[in-house]
Design a protein that fits this description.
The structure is a homodimer.
Chain A lengths: L4 E5 L3 H15 L6 E5 L48 H5 L9 H13 L3 H4 E2 L2 E9 L4 E8 L4 E7 L1 E4 L6 E2 L13 E4 L13 E5 L3 H12 L4 E6 L12 E5 L1 E5 L2 E4 L4 E3 L2 E4 L3 E2 L22 E2 L3 E2 L5 E3 L9 H15 L8 H16 L4 H16 L9 H17 L33 H5 L13
Parallel strand pairs in A: 1-2, 1-7, 2-3, 7-20, 9-16, 10-11, 10-16, 11-12
Antiparallel strand pairs in A: 4-5, 5-6, 8-17, 13-14, 14-15, 18-19
Helix pairs in contact in A: 1-6, 8-9
Organism (chains A, B): Aequorivita viscosa
Family (chains A, B): Belongs to the FMO family.
Cofactor (chains A, B): FAD
Chain lengths: ~450, ~450
């Protein structure tokens, strides 16, 4: 019998998790299907593959990454650790709980670098259009090899959509913004705080982007940072130089007016107004339509498109859990594709989805959210042989992290946590986060001599 | 017999010219085919439809427009005048030769606003994928209605690609640019000089974007403007505050190093490095692959895709002539589609294309270029009933414009030209261009009282 063919769109953390899941099977001596992964960037890593470019890339495709310079993990690394490849495995020594982007990117790559994963991936290749043939039950994917400007098509038995959902900005219009004289960009196009030194910055939004970009601009020398929220303020204990105001009503030249009647002049506006789930390569009937939430509708076990479970979506949830969730999803998806995990009927799947949606509707606090996603992870872990880990302990770490942020938005990254994979306690970083302006891997992994640690003695 | 169906991709100046061409026919009492025009923006005008947004638009599609605030025509309006709708028809009085964007946008719209053009256009709709059936000889176009997030497909007998080629940035990599701390964008994302006041700006490139953005930044208060050229400097008489240097070799933080061994610190880099012809919705065999030049290969009469002339490309040339060229092209395309203009065999078309390519290869100076495109326009005008105009005179105006720019890059926009359509001499603008910081239509059309013209007397 001809081998089944599996297409994976995207070689970011989710797509790589899917490849890794099949490799794990191969390492057990099993035969695996034919796998082809399409990645529009020139390298793997998805979001973690930083680009200095904004707008569109060298081949004119929208830039995938929303990462910026000086980005440090905004959650403890112990909450995202692969359970089959620990931080100890990779770094051979304890590191801190909040590493910068290059260090996390290094970690993601470590697991797959020694494998044949790269052979499965066609880089600089974007999926243009997907169709599904009801008779043959196969997907046809039209691909565009950007490097040589050539289109072609291939057939697949299963299609894994792992293209992420933090790439396409959601950017509302505010009256008068078209006449704002300074920089007015979406967080997606923010590449670091350097250019905002000494400036008065307005960030519209109250989620992770606003919080993190605000804190970075403060750290790197912005004159003032104002966060404008639609419904509720972030509400942590802000240091002097950062404040929260209600939503902008409109702009007049460089002045922003707020709902509470106040107004202020700004040098730059950064819209931290979230992202859209966007799948331009999928036809209507295959397209996941959802806002960013913890349990998007139409996905059984959060991954199988209920109308057509041969279509699999990875990582489409709003995320507390990240890498480890993608893994848990990919392992279940793999087992379905090789016939190890059987799906119940569409109607039964619908009932299961509805059960989760109902639970999701009742969530109120951040702690509720964490518990909900922990339950989801446990459910996934029960369905495959992905190495189990202590989900409850990770849940507790997430809650501690939420408390830490509330208490000290500038200091929470100095805290340490214990790995549930290895039991290793994280190291304290050689420099407090607020004093550390260099986010390179070299600087991060550098071990100062003892004297250097006590500058007063020199 | 069923009416032929014509699909037009893009409702910018070229797409609108195509609609207008059919309307002209209808006004002569002829029956016209069924026309559907797809426009991904919410309004018509293509490039002339200014957006404050950069990167992607509200539905996550790459932003089409490359226009910026304070953009004034960089060529005399008499060189782009529609020969069937004059500036006098529209403004009812003489205006200056170099109007700002809102005034030209107003003019483009004037011709079609009173017609039923809008009924032909589906806004917020993007073409996702085109295929051609060799048996039925029809195109199937898969469309995405962005507003309601819904895909569908339609069949067409002819497909007119009028999607422009100044939308997809070409942005080379320069070593070290990823560590440049300031703004680093492509000209496509430049939205006005305000945010660069007092700054030292580096523009990489030596074509229209570099010239015009450089001059605007100078006019609106940049501290210094440096243009960096690959092959040849623009070489006009630059005022103090603007200079040209050879190509950047690399960056180290905020310092740019140049081929001549010099180096300088900059606050911002704007890459004026041109655009790519990009047709992500077309398969390989229908895709025009060309650089920006005066006669792209594979297009008979500059419009008919030679392998499949049912596929028509408008406005794909590098442009001296613009609106009037699109018109001349659209009229010929129309006549082909209604069977009035018969194409010779593919081989004969190939000979004609090669003749033009050979001529194109021999062009050396800007004047040569103008003559070449004038010849092309004359050829087109001989093929349809688009109202003829004195092309030689327009050619002369282009040459005068080239001389004017060389002599006074800050003053050439104060010159006036005579319309070849109406014979009207352009008015002198009430304010010299360098002193005019307001580019609104209201300000432009405003007629000052006589005393106001002599401020010394007040």
């Amino acid at each position: 019998m001809k081998k089944k063919r599996i297409g994976i769109i995207g070689a970011g953390p989710s797509g790589l998790a899917q490849i890794r899941a099949f490799e794990a099977l191969k390492n057990q001596g099993e035969e695996i299907p034919e796998i082809v992964c399409f990645e529009k960037q020139s390298n793997w890593g998805g979001m973690w593959n930083y680009s200095w470019r904004t707008g569109v890339g060298k081949y004119g495709e929208p830039i995938h990454g929303s990462m910026y310079k000086y980005l440090w993990s905004n959650g403890p690394k112990e909450c995202l650790e692969f359970s089959d490849y620990s931080f100890d495995d990779h770094f051979k020594k304890p590191i801190s709980s909040y590493p910068p982007r290059p260090v996390l990117f290094d970690y993601i790559q470590g697991r797959i670098k020694k494998s044949e994963a790269r052979d499965f991936i066609r880089f600089d290749t974007t999926a243009r259009w997907v169709s599904f043939d009801e008779k043959t039950k196969k997907f046809t994917v039209i691909l565009d090899d950007l490097k040589i400007d050539k289109t072609y098509s291939e057939e697949f038995d299963y299609l894994v959509v792992a293209s992420g959902h933090f790439s396409t900005p959601n950017m509302p219009y505010f009256k008068g913004i078209e006449n704002f004289p300074g920089t007015a960009i979406h967080a997606h196009d923010f590449r670091g705080a350097d250019q905002f030194k000494g400036q008065n910055i307005l960030l519209i939004g109250s989620s992770y982007s606003a919080e993190d970009i605000g804190v970075q601009c403060h750290k790197h020398g912005a004159n003032s940072v104002t966060l404008s929220y639609r419904s509720n303020p972030i509400g942590v204990a802000w240091p002097e130089g950062i404040k929260e105001l209600p939503l902008v009503t409109h702009f007049e030249e460089d002045t922003a007016y707020f709902k509470d009647g106040t107004s202020e002049k700004f040098d730059a506006v950064i819209m931290c107004t979230g992202y859209q789930h966007k799948f331009p390569f999928l036809p209507d009937e295959l397209r996941l339509k959802t806002k960013n939430n913890l349990y998007p509708d139409h996905l059984y076990k959060g991954v199988f498109f209920n109308n057509l479970p041969q279509l699999i979506y990875l990582g489409m949830q709003d995320q507390y859990y990240t890498f480890n969730m993608f893994d848990a999803q990919a392992w279940v998806a793999r087992d379905y594709m090789i016939g190890r995990f059987k799906l119940p009927s569409e109607a039964k799947r619908r009932i299961d989805i509805d059960k989760w949606l109902k639970k999701n509707d009742k969530l109120e606090t951040g702690f509720d959210d964490v518990d909900f996603q922990s339950d989801y992870i446990k459910d996934l872990l029960s369905l495959s042989d992905y190495p189990a880990f202590d989900v409850d302990k990770v849940g507790e770490m997430f809650k501690q992290w939420l408390r830490d942020k509330e208490e000290g938005i500038l200091t929470y990254r100095d805290k340490t946590f214990q790995s549930v994979v290895t039991g290793t306690m994280a190291a304290e970083h050689h420099t407090e986060w607020m004093d550390e302006l260099d986010d390179s891997k070299e600087r991060y992994l550098y071990e100062p001599e003892e004297e250097e640690l006590i500058p007063d003695k020199l």
